[in-house]
Design goal:
The chain is of the alpha/beta class. About 40% of the residues lie in helices and about 25% in strands. It has 15 helices and 17 strands. The strands form four sheets. Strands 2-1-3-8-7-6 form a six-stranded mixed beta sheet, with helices on both faces. Helix 2 (about 20-30) packs parallel to helix 6 (about 155-170), helix 3 (about 45-55) packs across helix 4 (about 75-85) and helix 10 (about 260-270) packs parallel to helix 15. The two termini are about 50 Å apart.
Length: about 425
Amino acid sequence: MNAEIIAVGSELLLGQIANTNAQYISKQLAQLGINVYFHTAVGDNPARLKEAIEVAESRSNLLVFTGGLGPTKDDLTKETIAGHLGKELAFDEAALHSIEQYFVRSKRQMTENNKKQALVLEGSRILPNDHGMAPGMFLEKDSRFYMLLPGPPKEMQPMFDVYGYVVLQEKLTTKELIVSRVLRFFGIGESLLETEILDLIEKQSNPTIAPLAGEGEVTLRITCKHDSQEEAERLIDEAEKAIFERVGEFFYGYDDTTLAKELSKELGKHGLTIAAAESLTGGLFQQEMTNIPGAGNVFSGGVVCYTNEVKQNVLSVKEETITNDGVVSEQCAIELAENVAKLIDTDIGISFTGVAGPDELEGHPVGTVYIGISIKGQPTTCEKLLLGGGRSANRSRSAKYGQFFLLKELLKL
C-alpha cells in the first residue's frame, strides 16, 4: 500500500501553522509498513483540491486527508471528495447527536452550520471523534482507499490511533513493518561522512542508509522493511556495526536526542556537576544545558565573561596571561575552565574563548576557538578549533563542540 497525505488549509500555505499532522501520520503508517511517498498541502479551494486528488490517485492507493471537515464555508474537503467520487453526503445521526450534546453541556447556542460537521460520505466507515465534533471517514472505491481526518492535532491524533490505525490494519494484505533508526554524528561534515560510507549506501537495499544534514551535525537514517520486528532490528544492527567501523568516533546518540541531552545524561550517570565560563559563546552553552529538564542536578551555573575585566576580576585569569598569551589562547581557556569550577564549586569547568567575528582579534583569524575542560582529578585539556563561518554559526558550533568534547571525555570514565 502506497500512501499520500493531503493536508487541506490555506493557513498551511501562508505559514501560519506547521503541518505536524503529516509528520505524525507518516510515523504511524511506517509502523504498518505503508509507504508514504508524497506529502501535499493545498489551500481551501475546491478546484485545486480536486486537482491534488487526481494527481494523488495516479500514484497512490491510499489517500489520507487532514483538515477541512469543520462548520465554516471554507471547510470543503468532504464536499469536494464527494463530488469527485460521485458520492452523496448524509447526516450521521450518532455524530449529530454528539454535536448537539456538546452544546447542551457547554450551555451554548448551536448554530445551524454546526450540523454540517455531521455530514459524512455515503457508504463510508465512520471514525468517531472523541475529542471534537466532526467525525472522520474511511471509504474504499475502485481499489483505492480514502481516509478523512480532522485538522486539529488534538482531534486527529487520537482518532487515527484508536480508529484509523485499526481500519488500515484490517485492509493490509501483507503485514510488513518499516523500522527506522537514526544515528547522530558530530564533528564530521555530511560530504565526508558520506564519502566514508559511500559503498555501504550504494550496496544496501534493505536496510537502506540515508544521510541527512542537521544544524551543525549529520544524521544517518537506517530503514528496514520486514514482517518481523526482531529480524528488522537485526539487519539494522548489522548496518550500524559496519557504519561504526568507519565513522564511529563521531557518533554520539540515537533518534531525537541532542548533544546537550546526552551530556546531561552522562553527567548524571557519574554524579558530576559542571560550570561554564563563556566568552565568545555568550551563554549559549549554558542556555542549551538549562533547556534540558532536570538540568539543576548537573549544571550549577556559569559566567559570561565577555570583557577582559570580567575574566580577571571575576574568574581570576592572570594579568600576565592576558598580556603575554592573550584572551584568545590555550592558557586563557585553561585558567577560565579551572577557575570557574573553583568559583562555583563543581566537579567540571568548561570554557569558551575565541574569535566569533566579523573581525580578527589579537591577530587571530575569525573562527579561532579554544575550549578548556577541567575535570576534578584529571589534567586540564584544551581543544583548538579553526571554524569557517559567520559570527552566529561560529558561536553555535563552538557551544556544540564543547558538549561533544566533554561527552567524549566522560565516556572514557
